[in-house]
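Fig. S4 source data, part A: sequence.
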Amino acid sequence: MEFGHLIFLTQTREKFITDCILYEKSPSETTMLPEVVDRHEDQFGRKPLGIAMDKGCHPGKETMEDLQDDYEDEVEFIGIPSRSNDFADEEMGRYQRFRAGIEGSISFLQRKFHRHRVTFLTVSP
């Protein structure tokens, strides 16, 4: 969050930032998974092989099951924990460690460029 705006970054395993969305009005994070998957598919011509998002992005049990059904043929794993016990799962833990890496990337960018404010980004509706 920056000045009431949500900044959403996507990153590869290699720490390459592939997408950045700045929302003028902050949407519910629980609705963001389909947009992230669609944007990835538009950019790369296929859905991502795996997805890791934080606990606040979990859309609820029923919606999550529907999304997993929609993506089951193309996305190998969706790592969005719904409760703390989910971190005990080995694969979920691996994806969440990856997700935590983007926090380090954000901190690095802030330190390297002395930026703690977003001065220019294209705003998504």
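Fig. S4 source data, part B ends here. The chain has a mean pLDDT of 78.
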